[in-house]
Write a structure and sequence with these properties.
244 residues; mainly beta
């Protein structure tokens, strides 16, 4: 009987028309979020990389960026246009780590700065792992379209753009093994659902982002890999836990 009463109470809280915090009816409302992400570089090879007569980087077999986890946190400001349409401003601070494997033919000497790990294999090449760390301030502006409320849940789609900048100076970033510029614009799209509780809403969400700018700073990148790359863009997948 006790478990039956507990389940009944939980079900009423989730599926019954219990309360909301009232934020759905306000012109302006606020919240906060915690998020975990996995991010990587999208690297485009240069034409020189495929030129057999170019000796500057002929020891490089391949360049392989890897998805690496990180986290972020921030606040949410919501402007209500309609019960189903909102405009969101979600400033956040995010902590990124970008790992890139440079695969060299086995004869090359370990001479790339910033590589703490070097491994060999039986495939005729060796791998250098380069690590870039970045703390970013991101300023997304997003439109959110929600379904009609069903009991205490709603689905929604979200999309927009974000301006972001790195907290460390370019002079500090010039010491990274792969040098990038500090500012970027991204396109963001995702989906989630809202769960209404008595005093707040909880909204888990998945969102995809893709950088628009070529952030590669070739002039400051070490000569060993400089000419092998023509473009670097950021991309990532983020899971948000929103509280409103």
């Amino acid at each position: 009987m006790f478990f039956g009463m507990s389940f009944s109470g939980s079900a009423q809280g989730l599926f019954g028309l219990t309360s909301t915090s009232g934020s759905d009816d306000r012109l302006l409302s606020y919240g906060f979020f915690l998020a975990g992400h996995t991010a990587t570089y999208q690297i485009k090879y240069s034409e020189a990389f495929f030129d057999p007569t170019n000796t500057a980087n002929n020891q490089i077999y391949s360049i392989y960026p890897k998805y690496t986890p990180g986290f972020s946190l921030g606040f949410t400001g919501i402007l209500r246009f309609h019960d189903q349409v909102n405009l969101l401003f979600t400033p956040k601070i995010a902590f990124y780590e970008y790992r890139t494997d440079i695969n060299y033919y086995a004869s090359v000497v370990d001479n790339v700065p910033g590589n703490d790990n070097s491994t060999g294999n039986n495939l005729g090449y060796r791998t250098e792992e380069l690590v870039n760390e970045a703390t970013m301030v991101e300023l997304p502006l997003l439109f959110k379209y929600r379904s009609q409320r069903f009991n205490n849940t709603r689905m929604y789609f979200i999309g927009g753009g974000s301006y972001q900048f790195r907290t460390k100076s370019q002079d500090e970033a010039n010491l990274d093994p792969i040098v990038t510029r500090g500012q970027d614009f991204t396109i963001e799209m995702g989906m989630g659902f809202e769960i209404y509780f008595k005093y707040f809403k909880f909204a888990p969400e998945i969102r995809f982002s893709h950088g628009l700018n070529n952030i590669y700073y070739a002039e400051k990148t070490p000569a060993e890999i400089r000419d092998a790359i023509s473009s670097i863009k950021r991309k990532g997948i983020t899971i948000y836990l929103n509280f409103q």
